[in-house]
Every structure is written in C-alpha cells, then in structure tokens.
Amino acid sequence: MGDGLTPTIMTANVVVIGAGVVGLSTAINIQRLVPSCSVTIVAEDVVDGTTSVGAGAIFRPTEEYLPGVDIQRARQWIRDGWEHFSSLALSEHSGPAGIAITPSFMLSRTEIKDPLYKDVVFTFHELSRDEMKKMGFDKHFSYGYLVTTIVITTKLYLVWLLKRFLQNGGKVEKRRVSNMNEFQGRYRIVVNCSAIGSRQLFGDKLIHPNRGQLLRVKAPWIKYCIYTDADAYIIPNQGLVAVGGSRDENNYDISIDDKESKAILERCCKICPSLKRAEVDHVWAGLRPVRSPLRIEKEIIEVENDQLTVVHNYGHCSDGIALSWGTAVEAAGMVRDCLKCSSKL
C-alpha cells in the first residue's frame, strides 16, 4: 500500500488494440498516468492504413456526433483535448506534430447555438449579414461564424504520436488480432481502440461504419478553413488542402467513387471559387466508426475458463481527432484505477 493510504501500482503489462489516433493517444496517456506499466500496441495497420491518417481534422467537436453522451462528460473531453492541442500549437512541436492555428469559417443553413467548442477555441465571432455578403457566403448559408481554432495534419500527427510512444518505451506488434484468448496470461489489461473492429472482436452490434470520401488538392493560396452543414469543407493541411466530403451510413466500400469526387468538388467550388484552379493530388476514402453512445467503459470478459479486464475506447464518428486526447485521458484513468484495485488484492 506504499504510504499506507494510497495503493501503489505494481508493474503491469497492458496491451492496446488499434494504432489510429485514439489507440496511440490512449497508449501515451497510460504511459503518462501509470509510468510503471509496460504498454504494447497491437494493430494490423500502424499510421498508414488507419482511418485517422486520411481525416481533414479540424477541432470543432459538436453534440451532433455525440448522441447519448452526458454533456458534462463531453465538455471534459473537449477541455482536455483543447489543452493538449493548443499547447502543442503554441510550442516548438507544432510543425513536426502537424498542428496549426487556423482561422475557420463555420457556415450553416440554420443557427448554431453555443456549440461545445465555443468556450475553448481561441476566438469565436458571429458574422454579420454584411460580412457574410462580402465573403459571398450569403448565397448558400444563413449563418456564419469566424472561429480561430486548430487544424491537424493527421499523417504528421500520427507519426509524432508513434515516435513519442516508442521513446517512452512502448512496443508495437504489427499484426491482426483474431480473438481475446491470445492475450490471456500475457497482459493484465486489454484496452480496446479497434473502432469498427469491435463488431467482430467483441460482438458489438452498435458500432457501424459511415463512409467518407475527400480529395487532397494543391491550393497553397488557401490559408483558412471553410466548414459547412452541407457536406462541404475545405481544410488546409501542411502541403495540401483537404476538400470534402461525403457521408454514407453502413457502407464498407472504401474504393474511390469518381462521381462522388466530382460532386464534392462542385459543392466546394460554389463556396470557394478559387478551388477551380486547384490540381487534385489524390483521393481518399475511409470509414468513420459510429456508435451511440461513444464507448468508454470497463468490461470483464470470459476467456478460456479465465477472466480478462478490458477498457473500451471507441466510436468517435467524425470527431475522432478532436476527441482523441480527451477520451484517451479518461480511458487511461480507468486503466490506472483498475490496476490500483488489483494492487489492493
């Protein structure tokens, strides 16, 4: 019991399933909260091949993608996430980590009342009718907000997270996980960040895909974001500009749809005509993991006449990057608490 009051945490092996932004963030936070842990990530895809690597990634988490989640819990995730991303953005790590402070126009056909990110972002300003008209936004939208927030170039950010995890002593096994029996006797706790893979690994029928497609174009003159409620967004990353998007429920097909690409460009060029001169670099499609509610909880499962403690963290939908750090902090706290309890025994 250490000092007789606070239970100490013995050295323990913990495995994290999944190496997208949620898995990497959770693994790093376990290392931070429980330094005595030996943390291993097991994943078929590490950085490349993950859904996270293709995301446009702007910090604007909203209630729309958090159905069934207690609002105060969501606000804590957002506060923790903003503290992390804003600290990076204002540090010497911003470039290597792919983090940039970016003015962003949030455009809507209906009024946006007090979005969850309003009180944490650097600035939040409602555009007047005259300002909407000057920008040409009034032709398609009734409301607009100029927000100073953070944009993440996900490929750089994932590489930065992986490097940090490995520098902290973490290990990576690049392979597919078939079932939980393979972890029996090897790990004290399994942390599940497998997203849609949870459907097969844990029989979770609440998790399903939402297919999204975007283009990355060469448009170095675009230095600001445009994000709308009409399946159109323009997000400048380091080097290229992400132009999207689409939403297709329960579609597992990630092959490129040329008609969809054309429709995306047409929608975005109406809002930002200068995109007509942009050269398409590549097109990407991926599957957003949708679950109502997003799952962060502990579960005890049966494995070959034994029990295994699992901490789940998945189902982030379109806000995976923005919510990744905040939800990772909570999930890592659960791991710490589980280890404290087992240390008492």
UniProtKB/TrEMBL annotation:
It comes from the Eukaryota. One of its GO terms (molecular function) is D-amino-acid oxidase activity. D-dopa binds at Y233, R288. It is found in: Peroxisome matrix. GO terms for cellular component: peroxisomal matrix. Pfam families: DAO. One of its GO terms (biological process) is D-amino acid catabolic process. The keyword Nuclease does not apply. The chain crosses the membrane at residues 142-162. FAD binds at T51, S52, V177. This is FAD dependent oxidoreductase domain-containing protein. It comes from Magallana gigas.
